[in-house]
Amino acid sequence: MAGQAVRNRYTTSQMSVLLAATFALLFTTVVALLAVDQQRVLLAAERLQQQTVPEIIRFQRLTRNLEKLRQEGERLLASGTPAGRQESLFMIMLVASHPSILEHPPSAKLARDTEAFLVDAARLASEDPATLPLRLAEWQQIVTRLNLLVDDLSVEGVNLVASDLVDMTAAMRLANYQLIGTMLLVGGFLVLTMVLLRKHLLCPLQRIDRALSSLNVDQPTPDFPEASLAEIHAVEEASKRLHSVMLSNQAALRKVELLASRDDLTGLINRRHFMDLAEAELRRAQRYNRPVAIAFADLDFFKSLNDTYGHHAGDVVLCAFAHLLSESVRQSDLVCRYGGEEFALLFPESTVDKAHLLVERFRERVADREFRLPDGARLRLTLSIGLADASHCAIEAALKRADLALYEAKRRGRNQVVVASDAC
Amino acid sequence: MLRRVRLIACSLAAALCLAAGHAQAAVWALKVAVLENAPPMAYRDADGRLTGFSVEVARALCDEMQAQCSFQTTVLEQLVDQLVAGEFDIAAVSLLDTPERRSRILFSQPYFRSISLWIGKPGVLPGEHGLRIAVLKGSAQESYARKQGWETVGVRTSGELAEPLIAGSAQAAIVPMNTSLNLQKNKDFQRLGLHSAVLKAPELVGNAAFGINPRRPELRRMVDAALERIKRNGVYERINTQFLPFRVL
After folding, report:
1. Which residues cross the membrane (chain A) (predicted)?
2. Out of A415-424, B29-38, B58-67, B111-120, which region has the weakest mean confidence (pLDDT)?
3. A-B interface: how many C-beta pairs under 8 angstroms?
């Protein structure tokens, strides 16, 4: 752990604040952009409404007045009387002097020209009416100019609308692109958020779930890749700690179990544990119809040894004896300190005869052995053994029969093996 | 539950009553001053009904504003005083925007653009000594002529403007463009063989507007809005065509 590079971790609240802030910023920016676009469209529409439409209506009025000029000109030229021409001239003067014409320079100039021409034509006609038809060609030129100006004004009005519409369309299109962009951006952000959540929250949680589900002393310590989120890291570390606590608990339990099943002094299994194991062994043997033998061994005159040399010496002898005993039996045989100087033995897969040979050999070995006491004194010990077949008995019954055989051995003078004769 | 339903029903009923009351109040009354004997702007038709360009524009505005307008005739001479006195809400009379008027009344947005004409014998020029000029009493043309120090002969209605010329009590006239259209139709006037020319005085050219009671600025906003609407929806153009030979805005 210490060897790993320290990396920055974020808490989930930091992550959520970061994501929310990013999203808010993104969203605000995008909404602001859209609002700007909308404003552009609104402005274009407003311009169309407030400026362009009145302008078009103004152009229409202007064209009407230009046409009025033409009509009055036609009337003047067609008129046969000075009074009729005067009437037309009056109207032409009014129209040509009206602010609606004067404010538009091309129209004002043309109106001035038209008026001047017609005033001149009327003046000449009042002298000689025959001059009027001579001027028709010149009048046609003025009419053409008037018509062209009317055309221009009509087209200009249409162009004004078209230009506003082009602006509006461009703004709308831009807004449309931005909307699509916004949707992509927001979509991308959501995907990114999901990916981040998956990578840094969901997957680690699933890993933790798997690790915790299979957390077991038989499994190795769970290993996690480096987590980015502080909480995930904390939980992962906690599950590692939990695993190590489980391991140490397991070790402690084993130790306690060991302590609970052993005899303090000799290190052999104690009576309670022996009874558990023996009972299981007997059940197994009886199920499979296998031979099993059981024995009680008791050191002869051990009480007088205690009395003579002290309890400490007795303990030393018991330890040495136990050691010798556990060395002398097979791996599969059970040996326990049953109490005091009495030991119980179980011989799985052994007939009484085979067990008899074994315990007899052991008895001889003990009898030949010199035990050394702490004060340096040496002494010899003998041992009495009661042996019984346990192949068909309950453990208590088998033990009882072995005990009886032991008693018989004591009674017969000790240092011998007696086999329980009667079957159970 | 029943009580709540009853409560809601009562509230609804009350709201409806209020709305109805409001709708009732929406039909509001306006007193509108118009001129008489001033064709083509304001005159009585064959049936005696008031009509003319100014009158019909005023009617259209009343319709737009959903106002119940009562038309009352007056003469231009007294119009501004009456408007200041509150006798009318709107003066549906073409008023050129002069400083004197502006200091006393409110003006709507212009409803047409006018020019003024000098009418006199050929060769007779404005300001010539001993010349008497026919004008409408209370008009911008009158106050212009007076400012120039010219002698004037005032008439009470536009329709009477030809009379002093025909009678010889006036040798010239200053008239607004629309009035001149009417003058031109007068046979007696035509016989005088008078010459018309545009009078290029800035105060006699330009926007003509309705007058509004100076104590009702909110009314001006409504009139302006209504005017803007009829200028766009074609109503104004139809009135223009009906009464005047060319576009006057």
Report:
1. 177-197
2. A415-424
3. 49
**CB-CB under 8 Å, A90 with B196:** yes
Q: Please state, for a pLDDT cut of 70, what percent of chain B lies above it.
A: 89
B128: three-class secondary structure by DSSP: coil
A244-266 pLDDT, tens digit each: 999 999 999 999 988 888 888 88
Q: Write down the pLDDT at residue A290.
A: 92
Q: B121 falls in which pLDDT band (50, 70, 90)? A: confident
| Chain B residues interacting with chain A (CB cutoff of 8 angstroms) | 113, 115, 117, 177, 180-181, 184, 190, 196-198, 205-206, 231-232, 237, 245-249
Tell me how far apart the alpha carbons of residues A417 and A402 are, in angstroms, rounded to a whole number.
10
- pLDDT value at position A5? 47
Tokens 């006699």 belong to B204
CA-based nearest distance A94→chain B, Å: 7
Question: Could you give the C-alpha distances from B71 to A167, A224, B35, B77, in angstroms and in order?
Answer: 47, 95, 10, 18
Q: CA A160, A162, A167, A172 torsion: positive or negative?
A: positive
Residues of B in contact with A62 (CB under 8 A): 247
Given this model, what pLDDT does residue B15 score?
Answer: 54
pLDDT at B5 over 70: no
> What integer pLDDT is reported at residue B21 of this predicted model?
46
- The pLDDT of residue A140 is 95
In the sheet that holds B90-96, the strands lie side by side as: B67-74, B28-35, B90-96, B206-212, B106-114
Fold type of domain A266-419: Alpha-Beta Plaits (3.30.70)
Burial A32-48 (b: 16+ CB within 10 A, else e): ebeeebeebbeebeebb
Averaged over A99-114, what is the pLDDT?
A: 95
Domain locations in chain A? 1-261, 266-419
Residue in A89, A94, A102, A126 to test binding to B, most B beta-carbons within 10 Å? A94
Mean pLDDT computed over A15-42: 88
Nearest to B205 among A53, A95, A99 (CB): A99
Long-range pairs of A281-286 with CB within 8 A, sequence gap ≥ 24 = A281/A334, A281/A346, A281/A348, A282/A390, A282/A393, A282/A394, A282/A395, A282/A398, A284/A348, A285/A348, A285/A349, A285/A390, A285/A391, A286/A391, A286/A392
Are B232 and A57 a contacting pair at CB < 8 A? Answer: yes
Measured distance CA(B156)–CA(B164) in Å, rounded: 12
Q: pLDDT, tens digit, for every residue of A207-231?
A: 999 989 988 888 888 888 888 888 8
Q: What is the pLDDT of residue A251?
A: 93
Domains of chain B listed by start with CATH number: 27-114+206-243 (3.40.190.10), 116-204 (3.40.190.10)
